[in-house]
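Inputs:
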Amino acid sequence: MSRSDEAPDFAEPIEAWRAWRVVRRDERFVLGSIIQRVTWPPGRALKATCLRRPTLLSRLRRKDVHESPRESCECGIYATSIDHVAFYLSETPRTSAGRVFGLVALWDTVVECERGYRAAQAYPTRIYVPVDASHSSEDGWEEIAFGLQHYGVPIEPIAARSRDAVSVIAEHLAA
Amino acid sequence: MNVGKPQRVHRVEPIRSPVPAKPAPDKAPSVPSPDTPAKVSAR
């Protein structure tokens, strides 16, 4: 019996944390992955595909493209715990329009890992915008916050810079 | 992002879609009908 025939383990999405770069596209802002050149579509789920380049050996073996995430691969949509998200927020490339972080819902096939998850489908559920979210002198955090509203999820400005914003939220949630 | 080694695989099937329904488009501003008489302020 394949896993898709089995009863699901959870009937609610798994929630975890991640950082995004903000990308200006067609006069509005969209969320983008920090590592990959992937943007998150507003209003529909992001679906994972394996972006690993096929090696010569795999091409010779005619290894098929697999569903993502596969346990033995490194593919999938990544999310982590709040303890680790600050590092990725600081790693956001300055070439992007800005950087934000937040909660993301993960569902379908989800590989639980030591420090987070790799999922088949994902959608942001809450977006936090630090005061220094914008990398541009033209836009402030207000424009970033307003420009991400088309995701239809709560957007919360944080009165702290990126390096402190995650710990501000972590302390608030722990209180 | 480095999340470490896989521990287990879950099958997650949410009862409700985690993707919010599209917000209703902004209501278009009402345009007065040409038959509507213009308001005349009393003097």
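The mean pLDDT of chain B is 70. Flag for discussion at group meeting.
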